[in-house]
Each structure stands twice: as C-alpha cells, then as structure tokens.
Amino acid sequence: MSSLEELIRNKNPFAGHTVVTPLQIWGKSFPDVPSINAHTSDAVFDAVAKVRRGERQTVGITITAEKGLGKSHIISRIRHHYQAHSDALFIYMNKYDNLNKINTLFNQNVATSLKAFGSQGVMQWQELAAALINEARNWNYTPQQYLAIFPQWLSKYSNKLGDMLTNLVLQVKPDIDNPYIVTAILWTLSAAHARYAIHWLSGGELSQIQAETMGLPNPKGEDREADALNNARQILDITSDYRVPVICFDELDIVAIDDNGFTVAQLVASLVKDLYNTLKRGAFLLAMYADTWSQQVRSLPQAEAVMARLASERADMQPLKLDYLNSDKVIELVSYWLQEFYGENQQTPPDPIYPFDENKLRELGKQKPTVRAVIRWCAENFKLSENGETKNIVELCYQTKLDYIQRNIDILSEEKNDEIAKSLKLAFSTLCQQTIEGVTIDRVEEIQCNSVDQGYIHFKIVGTENEQEVKIGVAVLEQSGGRYQGAALKRLIDYKKFDLTRGCLVRSKKINSGARLAQNNVRKLLQEKGGEWVRLQSSDITPLLAILFVVYENRESYELSEEQIFDFIKEKRLAIDNALIREILSDPSGQEPDNLTDDDLPMRVPQTVVDVDNNIEL
After folding, report:
1. Percent share of the chain, pLDDT over 90
2. Which residue, among 187, 254, 177, 174, has the nearest Cα to 216 in the 3D structure?
3. Which has more pLDDT, 325 or 601?
4. What is the pLDDT of residue 608?
5. Helix, strand or coil for residue 91?
C-alpha cells in the first residue's frame, strides 16, 4: 500500500468539521475559501474601515442564513483577518447561560475575548495596556518590552506602581469615569498579576489581600447587572481610542427565554441597540436564522429602531444573506481543503480533488447545497473506492476534535468549568450499572438547589459502595479568585443541604494562599467531611472534551446518534479506563493531590526576545 493510500484510509480531513466550534474561531481554523460569501465578510471589513476613518461612529451588520450555510465560517474568517491585522480588536459571544443576566454575560465575554492573542503576539488586553502607556508618556514601546520591564518596575515602585501608571494615563484621558478599569488593564502587563486583573475586569471578586495589593475594589452593591454593562461600555470605549472593537454575536437561535419571556436574539438585539447608541466607536455583527430575524427581532417593541441599528449599512434595514453553493464553488471548496490536507501530510495526489470524482461533486453542486452538507458528504465519501475501508465516522470525528483540543488546550482554561464538568458528566452517564473502584454507579443527577446555589456543584453521582448508598457531588473549580473559590467550597461541604455523602473537588491548581475562607473549606472537605480533591490533568480531560463536542454540542449536525457515540466510548474504554474518572470514584485520601500548579504563579510571558531599555523611568 502506498503512503497516499494509507493516508486516505487512516485520516479524513472532512470528518468532524461540519460544525465550526469556538476553538476554530479562536485557535487554528479550518481551510477557508475567501471567495465563498465574500460579500458578507467584505461588508464587515468595509464597515470597520469606515469607523476607523471616522466616517461612521458605530455600524451594525446582521447575517441571516439557514443552518449549515456558513454563518460561523464568516465569523471565523473575520476573527483571523483581524488577528493578522492591527486595526481592530475582536470580541465574540456565543454562550448565553443565564439570560436574566445578559449584561453580566456580555461583560464576561468582553474580558475573555480580549484575553485572546491579537496581531502583536500577546493578549489583546496587553496590546491595549501598552497603547495606554505609550500615549501617556509619548513612547513607542511594544507590549513585549513592557512585559519584560514590569518586574523591574515592581521591584522599584512596589504596590504604588498601579496608581502611578493609572495617574499618568488619566492625565491624558480625564474623561474616563472609572479609573480602576484603567488600573486593571495596566496590571495585565505584569505576569504575576494578569490573571487576577482579567478576573476582576470580567466582574469577578478578588481575595482581600490581592485586591489591596493591586489597588482594586471588590464589586459592591445590589445592581451588579447594571454595573456590568457600564464596565463593559467603558472597556470598549477605552479600546476604541486605539482599535475598532468588532463585536460578534453567534448562536442566537437557541430555544431559551428569560423571566420576562424574551428570547436570546431579542435580548442581544436590545443590548446591541443600547451599545450602538452609547459607544464611542464600534462594529457589531450578528448571525441568526432568517426566521429568527423575521419572527423574533421584528416583533420587538420599537422594532424599526432596533433593525435600523442591527442592519445600519443597508438602506432597506434588512440583513445580508448567505449564498448557497453551486458546482464551481463545491469544486473550489473541496480542492482548497484537500490542498491543505495533502500539503500537511507531504503527499502529492494525482489531481486536486482526489479521491473524489469531479462529476459527482458537480452533481452535488446542482442541488445548491450548504457548506455543511458538502463537508458532510465529503466526510462520508472520502475513500479510495466504493468498497474502500475507512475508519468509523464516529472515530474520525472524535480524532479530529481531539487533535484540535490538544493543540488549543490553553483556550479551555478557567473560563471553561462548565464544559469540563459536562464532559465528566457525560462519561459517568455511560458507566451506569458498572462497578468501578468499588462503586456501582446507578445514575447521574443534576443538583437540586435554589438559583443562588446554582453552578457551584456541577452534578451528583448516585451509586452503591460497600452495600451503602453513596452520593458524590462533583465541583470543577479552575477559577482564580478567593471569594468564588470559598463560595463553591462552602456548598461542596454542605452535604445535608445538597443531599451528598461525599464532595469531590476537581482542580489543577493550589488554592490561593490569601483566600482564607477557601483554604478553611478545603481543610474541612478533606479532613472533616471525608471528601476528596482530584487533580485535573489535560491528558485525562482532553479525550472527554473531544467526546463532549462530538455528542452534546453537535451530534445532530454530524448525523450521529447518541447510541453510536456511547458504543464508541465503551468500545474505546474512554470512560472506564480514564484516570480522572477512576480517581473521582476511589476512596478519598484526605490529602491535597501532589504536583498541583500554583495559583499565584504568573501567567506565561510570550517567548519573544525583545530589546528593552532597562532605564525606562515613569
């Protein structure tokens, strides 16, 4: 068998790619054919250019299309365009977990998005911080140079540094209402303080010691929702002095409503209308189904005013529509994907669309398919002949997702507790009626609790151990921030309230040394309550995350049944042999795990060699 034949039998470049995931938007993307639906991405690029030139203050563009036609492909194209260019900062929102706190969710997404790397090879927060100092001091240093000099400044100025830098910035920006936002942004240039600064900017609380060290007040007051929107506005306004914020809202068609009966699309549309009227500069991009626009957005109070802002680049106030593919576009799409696939694997095929037949692809194009339909067809037909053997489609999808997650595991960091918990819950669901580490699993349950207690304990494993009923509450807790840690652990040790017999903390890092409440609750969990702390390791969780993204997130799009997925998990023993799964069920040791990372350790400084003047004085 030739190496080309072996490659085709064992790898499938199309499997697992029928849906664009956030990983592909933020990390390594799929092959993008720029000419497909170029009118939509070009409209965004042109609108942002108008804002940058001062011809417009704010613009809004809405894209409508049916499922699979390529809405998220366009957003991914836009993200990667602005990652390579320095004229905009990209903000992305696609999760709407608590619709009653849409402003808080938006603030969190702004903070998380700016944590992603921008065009200068550092976090977008750090690009912004460097721009603030450069303007204040009339300097022209790079973010990398500031990252290199910050330890020296800290040694010289100690905790006064944050106030000194903030005061310098406020001298040239006296219109900033909340100086603490500036302080937090500037702290992102300190590797030792960046994660805490970003946590605070997202609306999170800090331990008292950390807050005092950085000169940041912890959030107060009952109206946290209004404060969240004000903070997000100020962050975006500061950002817009240097780059145009490009704010994208995806996945607006989910079936969910808030307590007042408004849908996701309606809430986001109203939020964008408010931001459109109040931001100094910005571009908004919304992606939704045509029915969502016509039935939900158009039914809002003052619908015309809303639509005028969501489609401000169109005289008719209507969204842009994506095109279906034709035969030529299908050939172009397939050859583009295969060109990258064969190039990465150092193979030369006999023709650009090998092993496909051009006539079959052109017949497919006559049906005017969606991008998703073409990728799915290619995934199912990528083989050497009609009888050619290929791997199971579930395995191909799984392997594709596993590769992506392994390459982009840093993106699945402390903001992704829920995804990690969902992947664990899914794994345990496949193990019902099996005995592992002495525990016979009966079922996996949601935690029944009031809204104030939701989100801290993620699920409960109910089973039998030594002929006694056992109820293990599992809490994934990767966040920094002592107050949140303390609140989560307080619930995890309240066995009576949450109907538990054992609490299990899943975390990779030590508890912050200054978080006294959290430290005390960990001690109670391990030494008094018979609970357990299991160390989260990327090697254990990445296979489970890959299965999660195949099953819960996208199984309908992949046309895979739950039974197929569960059979694959059992066949490959992905759950039953997983060290993390077994450790959660094992007898508690009563001790902290070994080899925990330090929550106080600084964030990674980009590995870029820089020349810096060690005599930079503030």
Report:
1. 64
2. 187
3. 325
4. 42
5. strand
CA 30, 31, 34, 38 torsion-angle sign: negative
Average pLDDT over residues 231-249: 96
Report the alpha-carbon distance of residue 204 to residue 400 in Å, rounded: 34
Most confident of 28-32, 311-315, 498-502, 513-517: 498-502
Pairing status of strand 320-321 against strand 282-288: unpaired
**Range 26-54 burial, b when 16+ CB lie within 10 A, else e:** bbebbebbeebbeebbebbbebbeebbee
How far apart, in whole angstroms, are the C-alpha atoms of residue 533 and residue 522?
8
Identify the CA nearest to 109 among candidates 255, 260, 271: 271
Closest CA to 412 of 504, 538, 547: 538
| Rounded Cα distance, 453 and 457, in Å | 8
Residue 607 has pLDDT above 50, yes or no: no
Helices 371-381 + 358-366 axis angle, to 10: 150
* Range of lowest pLDDT (195-204, 243-252, 388-397, 561-570): 388-397
3-state secondary structure of 156: helix
* Residue spans of alpha helices (H) in 464-615: 482-492, 495-498, 516-523, 538-548, 555-558, 562-572, 579-585
Task: Give me the residues paired with residue 88 across strands.
Answer: 244
Q: What's the DSSP call for residue 526?
A: I
Using the structure block, give the residue that is written with the tokens 């960091």.
Answer: 413
Per-residue DSSP letters for 244-268? EEEEEE--TT-S-B-TTS-BHHHHH
Neighbours of 321 (CB within 10 A): 15
Contact status, residue 188 vs residue 133, Cβ threshold 8 Å: no
User: CB neighbours of 193 closer than 8 A, spacing ≥ 6?
Assistant: 187, 213, 214, 602
3-state helix, strand, coil in the chain (%, to 5): 50, 10, 40
Indicate the helix (H) or strand (E) that contains 42: helix 38-53
Residues of 59-97 as b/e, b for ≥16 C-beta within 10 angstroms? bbbbbbbeebbbbbbbbbbbbbbbbeeebbbbbbbbbbe
Lowest mean pLDDT among 22-31, 517-526, 529-538: 22-31
Provide mean pLDDT across the span 501-519.
89
Amino acid at site 40? T
- CA 279, chain centre distance (Å): 24
What's the predicted TM-score (pTM) here?
0.77
| CA-wise closest residue to 495 among 521, 513, 467, 468 | 521
For residue 404, pLDDT beyond 90: no
In a 3-state reduction of DSSP, which class is residue 33? coil
Q: What is the pLDDT of residue 284?
A: 97
Mean pLDDT, the chain, whole residue set: 89
What distance in Å separates the CA atoms of residue 143 and residue 608, rounded to the nearest whole number? 11
What counts of helices (H) and strands (E) characterise the chain? Answer: 27, 11
**Distance from CA of residue 203 to its chain's centroid?**
17
Task: Give the angle subtended at the CA of 211 by the CAs of 451 and 504, to the nearest 5°.
Answer: 45
395 or 460: which leads in pLDDT: 460
Please give the helix or strand (H or E) that residue 38 lies within, else none: helix 38-53
